[in-house]
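> run fold Wall-associated receptor kinase galacturonan-binding domain-containing protein
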Amino acid sequence: MSRLGFIVAFISLQLLFVPQVYSLGASHLCRSYCGNVTVEYPFALRSGCGHSGYRDLLFCINDVLMFHISSGSYKVLNIDYAYRSITLHDPHISTCDSIVLGHKGNGFVVENWRAPYLSPTSDNVFMLLGCSTQSPLFQGFPYGKHSPCRNVSGMGCDEYYGCQGWTDLGLARMGLAYGTGPPVCCSLSFDAIKSVNLSKLECQGYSSAYTLAPLRVSGPSEWTYGIRVKYDVEPNNDSYCKACEATGGSCGHDVDRLGRLCICGSWNSTSNCDTIMKLSVGGTSSPADKLLGLFIATTAFWLTSFRT
Ligand SMILES: *[C@@H]1O[C@H](CO)[C@@H](O)[C@H](O)[C@H]1NC(C)=O
Ligand SMILES: *[C@@H]1O[C@H](CO)[C@@H](O)[C@H](O)[C@H]1NC(C)=O
Ligand SMILES: *[C@@H]1O[C@H](CO)[C@@H](O)[C@H](O)[C@H]1NC(C)=O
Ligand SMILES: *[C@@H]1O[C@H](CO)[C@@H](O)[C@H](O)[C@H]1NC(C)=O
Ligand SMILES: *[C@@H]1O[C@H](CO)[C@@H](O)[C@H](O)[C@H]1NC(C)=O
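> ok
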């Protein structure tokens, strides 16, 4: 073959590869929408996208975003990326109008490996309802000093007893607050117990509420019922993801080894999409990547020698 023939061949080969190599448009590869909720880093709906701590967590079912952990499935009402919080709804959460007993609610229990990444916010109050005398909550009686029940962010059972829902259940406020057994309602923060497992705590139901600071709302009829969860993605280590996105990539992870990956379209990098040398998973080049590198190098050589 003539020298010109080689050049033509190599240019054709390069044209075949170039559009893939330089397609720096992967930043939206991992973004999804479910109903009107945007799902993006650290969350994802696609396998391999997002942070590994949030893998297999969110599912979009008929345009409803669902959040799935050990204790059950919750509807996601909102993801606040600025405040790193996610708001969940459990249909069996008691509100002010409706007290739901009968062991129906999910509570809130996350898998051990996921615990560092997700926990209800410190200003979210959990109110455990109808827990038995034998409940681990009330071990170490007499009540009072050893009771874990507290007000959280100005919200607690004393006010919750004023809700219409109790009256509808046929329970009067006085009887609720001043009985001789354990309290019918025990409010606490998630941090106090680290897991709201209703069967383990022997409770018949629960409520969860939060107020959006700095607004102070007056009473339980104005609290927002739901579970507000904060998500923490190694805040000191986000430069990795920023660098990936700045070069047009999408932050993801290796599905098998769970290490971080920058998804660059047709290849993955362990750093960012400008680093052509780190083409593949885990930093070791596959034969295809090596071949691609060889084509680029050889074509560059031929083009240069043709000009001079
Ligand atoms: C890049 O990583 C994603 C997520 O782990 C994976 O689905 C995809 O197959 C990888 N692509 C390549 C070219 O290795
Ligand atoms: C809750 O506690 C019960 C009893 O200890 C246990 O069997 C169950 O697996 C726990 N649920 C979750 C979601 O961890
Ligand atoms: C999504 O739409 C529902 C009504 O369809 C609305 O209540 C909710 O606030 C919306 N969420 C967001 C994040 O816009
Ligand atoms: C909670 O706050 C109320 C006032 O809103 C107060 O009367 C009550 O003693 C507090 N309860 C606890 C357990 O601190
Ligand atoms: C940052 O993330 C990388 C990759 O996951 C990890 O190897 C490193 O230890 C992390 N550094 C810190 C300070 O957490």
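Residues 70-71, 109, 197, 199-200 surround 2-acetamido-2-deoxy-beta-D-glucopyranose (ligand 2) (CB under 6 Å).
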